[in-house]
Structures are given as C-alpha cells and as structure tokens.
Amino acid sequence: MRLRTAALLSIVMGVLLMGLTSPAQAATNEAIDVTGKLADTRTDPAKPVPGVKISVEKDGAEIASGTSGADGSFSIALPGAPIDLLGEVITVKIDTDTLPEGADLRDPKKTSYKVTIKTDSDIQINYAIGPATDNSVGKLTEIGQSGINGIFLGLLLALAALGLSLVFGTTGLTNFAHGELITFGALAAFLFQDQWGWAFFPAALLAVILSGAFGLANDRLLWKPLRGRGTGLIAMMIVSIGLSIFLRNIYQYFFGADNHQYTGVPAGKLWNIGSIGISPKAFYIAVVCVVVLVVVSLAVQRTRLGKATRAVSDNPALAASSGIDVDRVITTIWIVGGALAGLSGIMWGLTNGFDYQVGNKILLLVFAAVTLGGLGTIWGTMAGSIIVGLLVEMSSIILPSELKYVTALVVLVLILLVRPQGLLGRAERVG
C-alpha cells in the first residue's frame, strides 16, 4: 500500500515538475527594472507621452533615471544585484516639468511612489495623465462597494477553509500546511498554461484533480502513519508547520518568487449598479464558489458517505464500532479537502494573482474564518468566512488598505477569548 501511495505522490510531483528544465533561480533577473507606460487619456485612443523624465531615489539620493520613449514606455534598471536590493525602499518620481504642454497628471499631488522591493521581478509604476477626475465617493457607496467585495472575499475564504474544517472534524488535526495545498492548485494550473500552453479551463480542471491526489498522498505518506503510531495532535500540528515550510521552499525553488497571472480569462467590462462596480470575473468566481459549497454541503448532509463523515466527526470510536470504515472516510476527506484547497487557490489567483506563498498569505484569514464559525462545522465555516470577509473589506473604510487583513487577527484573538468553540461549534471539556 505504501509503495502504491509513494508511486502516486511521484506521479503527482512528476507531472508538476515536467517541463521545468531548470530551477527558477537559473532564470533570476540580472537586474530589477522600474517599468511603465505614459499615455494621455484625453484622446481616444490614448496618445503616448514621450520624453518624460522618471527618476529613482534611495535615501534621498538619485540612483537611476530614464525617459519615456516614443511609445510612452520607460524601463529603468536599478543598480546592484537583485538579491542585494531585496528589502530596500525606493522612491519613483516623475518630473512634471518634462510633461508636454497641455498634459498634466490627473492627481497633481501624486508625483512619486514609495516602493519596498520584495521580489526580484520588475516593478510596474503607472502615472495617470489626463483631465482631473473626482475620485471622491459617498459614504453609502463606499460601504456598499466594500460589502460586495466582502461577500466575494468571504466566498473565496469559505472554499479555502472548508477542506481545513473537514480534516479537523474527522481527524482533529490543525493542519498548518493547508496553505500549501491551496498554493499547489494555483501553481499546477499555472504550470499547465505556462509550460504546455493549455487553455485555462482544462488546466484548472486537471489541477483540481491533482490537488485531490496530492491531498491523498499527504495523508497516506505522512498523516496516516502518524495516526497509526498514536502520535499526539500537538506533535502532528508541529509536523504540519515543518511540512508547510518544506513545501513552500520547494515551490519557490521551482517557480521562483515572481507574481504570476493566468491567461485567457478576460476580466470583462465592469458592471455598474448605480455607483457600485462589480467585476464580471469576480461575480462568476463567486458563482463557482457558491455552487461548490452547496454541492459539498448537500453531499455531507444527505449522502451515505456524508453521514458517515458526520459520525466519524462526532465519535470515531463509536463510528468504527457501528461498522463505518473510519480510514476510508478520512481518506475521502483528504481527497475532497485537497481538491477544494486547490480550487480555492486557482480562484484566488484569478482574482488577485499569486506566487509561491499565496496559500500561506491567506492562511490567517482561513484560520480566522474556521475558528469564528466553529472548528469542524461546515455551516460554521461558511458563516465565519462570510463574516471575516465582510469585516476585512469594511475595515478598509477606516484603516489603510495595507492593514485591513489585521482585522482577521483581531477576530481570531477575540473569538478565542470570548467563545473558543466558535459561533456554531460545541463547547467541549478538555482534560
């Protein structure tokens, strides 16, 4: 059995690595460029703006500069090796005196951008040139837009959190490597597009199937042997942290630290409902999330396997004594959980882009959602995800957008202090 499982894992990883002729490090940029394109939007189509000086400063001193070309584009190489620039803070400035007569920035005050270099990829900077626009919106519009965005975010979190909740419910494992299952799906779909030239939908479908197989391999090669040896849940949680770090480094080695985007999925023209804008892509992603969540929920509630899953979650020993194959149920949950995590990584990548640690970045939100709703409860996980999504997006009305995810940490701390079992979880005595 272990040999067959090892072969399965080899196939999964082999498919992922196929076509990667060399590690990502071999393709590391020789220099980090500040790039962009200037276009005057007062004309239709927009007219390139050449001859504009762009400078880059560090610690108040200019370190590089360049001018926009005939097509309005500019590319300024930063001095120094990319690895030495990581963590540095630079300021990109536009010299408004070099703008052609009659061309002005939409926001005259926005002449510079401060950027912290986090990867070795090029830095994209855009300056809006054209007539000034009134970007102020009413408070009700801002609340409505944040509410829509919060629901969309909550549905994505529910999809990502459901697998984690199912695994916890049946095994008691708090899996910190769940984020790497999310990343696996995103990277697998990208690989099929980038290396094999597949269209997005077949690439995504195969990536979800491989994610389920990867979840199975995780259980058979690691978690099932540990359960068989009677390893405690705390020790297994620590193992999951180590597995998370290991997989994250593997992903970075082969895929690099660049941010990636899927191709062949148009964003579509923004839908306007009054003053609220809805992205067609985000809407269809939300529909996919709703359909998957409803299907999984009905399966758990009404199918024979779903009822067995609930029985194992309530009392594994009693379920086993009543004739339920507990190992088979747990195996199925790992397959479903891996597939759901992979699908959530793909959906997240469609909306926000992704890199080798996308799952780790949203893991805090996932844990906050699961903890708020109640560990191991499907409905609680969904409710918690929607609430966390709404709170995170609504907080951006008051907090800077860079701090909005801190709201999830506040929710996590408060729920652990006030109601550790979550909104829909059951209080249990420990000890």
TrEMBL record:
One GO cellular component term noted in the UniProt record for this chain: plasma membrane
GO BP field: D-alanine transmembrane transport; L-alanine transport; L-isoleucine import across plasma membrane
Protein name: Branched-chain amino acid ABC transporter permease
Signal peptide: 1-26
Signal in keyword set: yes
Organism: Aeromicrobium ginsengisoli
Membrane topology classification: Multi-pass membrane protein
Subcellular location: Cell membrane
Database matches in CDD domains: TM_PBP1_LivH_like
GO molecular function, one term: L-valine transmembrane transporter activity
Keyword entries, A-Z: Amino-acid transport, Cell inner membrane, Cell membrane, Membrane, Signal, Transmembrane, Transmembrane helix, Transport
TM helices/strands, residue ranges: 150-168, 175-192, 198-218, 230-251, 282-300, 329-350, 362-391, 403-422
Sections of the chain in a coiled coil: none
Domain of life of the organism encoding this protein: Bacteria
Lineage, broadest ranks: Bacteria, Bacillati, Actinomycetota, Actinomycetes, Propionibacteriales
Annotated family: Belongs to the binding-protein-dependent transport system permease family. LivHM subfamily.
Pfam families named in the record: BPD_transp_2
InterPro entries: ABC_transp_permease (IPR001851), BCAA_transport_permease (IPR052157)
